[in-house]
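Following up on my earlier thread - several people asked me to post the actual chain instead of describing it. Fair enough. Here it is, all 321 residues.
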Amino acid sequence: MNRFVVSSSPHMHKDESIASIMLDVLIALMPAALAGIYYFGWRAAVVMLTSIASCLLFEYLYEKLMKKPITTRDLSAMVTGLLLGMNLPSTIPLWMVVVGSAFAIIIVKQLYGGLGKNFVNPALAARCFMLIAWAGAMTTFPEPMAGVDAVSSATPLAVLKGVSEGTLPTLRQAFLGAMPGSIGETSCLMLLLGFVYLLLRRVISWKIPVTYIVVFAVLTFFFGKNETGMEAWTYTLLHVMSGGLLLGAFFMATDYTTTPTTPMGQFIFGAGCGILTFVIRRFGGYPEGVSFSILLMNVCTPLIDRYTVPRKFGEVAKHAS
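Reply from S.P.:
Thanks for posting it. Predicted structure:
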């Protein structure tokens, strides 16, 4: 006897397609991507274009070889490619970008059945794979606006944690994006513009990203290891605006496939991401933590959905006869 598993209500029909939703995400990512090119130069554009082209190519080749319908036109592979490229330093060798794209599309997405079947975010999983495989290349970040003479520099998170020496950016620099980091993660202003666009287009809900950021900020303010001598609120704001927190909260923790569908589940998911990111940054040896936190919560999504499904109206408990 066949069993059909249906996700929790509500089930709404909207005049939207996968391609239109993905197009909105691409539009929302454009300000931060352009800021990355502005701060890190033409090499940043090459990295992102290589990632996008590789993801599209691997999706097409896999589906062609497996004799499956070609889905490159739904733009999901392009979104994965752009997100992966924005999560990489502009100095990374291009062959590593190609291998990371293959991992995202073939291993994480297609082998589990394609779009809607993957249980973790492909771009984040590929980034973590690349971080483990090529830690040196993945943690070498150039100074912004350095041009062809770019030299590696410590990220604000590494300085805040005390694992590297360097100069911390001002809050204004952090807000605009003038600091070392991955291509698409440095400009708080541009990421916020993309977030507002997605909210206005009703592509995403505010629940996960706002809960994520607020929980992380509260924990950092009260329990962060602030040995910099700066005020607690300045220390907290630098933590929020540095690293991949905003990029992850706005664009990857809100992925439809790998996050809870229930309102309560979304609050739990966001809080879990915030707690895990704080724990990794505060107690771990790695100054970041966003990618691993979201992936860990992705794995918990089915369990969260299971226990946060709202009770049906009029439902009563069954009594033993």
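The two ends are 26 Å apart (CA to CA). That should answer part of your original question.
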